[in-house]
Transcriptional regulator, TetR/AcrR family
Amino acid sequence: MAIKKTSKEEILKNSIHLFKVNGYYNTSMANIADACGLIKGSIYHHFKSKDEIGLESLKYIHEYFKNDIYSIAYQSDLSAKEKLKLFVKKVDNYFVNSEGGCLLGNLALETSLQNEVFADEIKSYFTNWQDALMVILEDKYTNIDAINLSKKYIALTQGAIMMMNLYGKKEDYLKVGEEIISLLD
């Protein structure tokens, strides 16, 4: 295999894809190197271990969601309805166009009982998602109702991602977003 230079971000993007499609435990350092066009030892110039790649992959996706999606809830120039529509649109675009589902949802099921560090990052991701939705929904609902509705939407979204991947159909997944948007009618 030819040796090529690659960035830490390229390694993360390839790793994320492999972890989502094959699972964390079914993805080896050799698989990651192959996906990046590298020899296995080259990965160690950027990461000490697969666990480090796993944690950095979780953080990478979490940062994307915080910056590009969750931040919508805190924009003062949009109405609650506009925020929710944009929020749902971006969540839907991400998952509909992302083979393998939700990395954090997948790894929550696969690794959280064995890896406390992963579990903490995954919990933070879902807490941030819940908090952002809660902020939007508090425009119409009490704090407790907004919390409960945000938890419900996240659970429905995660289940719908699983079903969309299982059956290869996005229509039912998209209905979840439509349902949450209707809460502000």
About this structure: The chain has one domain: 51-182. Residues 17 and 98 are 9 Å apart (CA to CA). The domain at 51-182 is CATH 1.10.357.10 (Tetracycline Repressor; domain 2). The two ends are 57 Å apart (CA to CA).
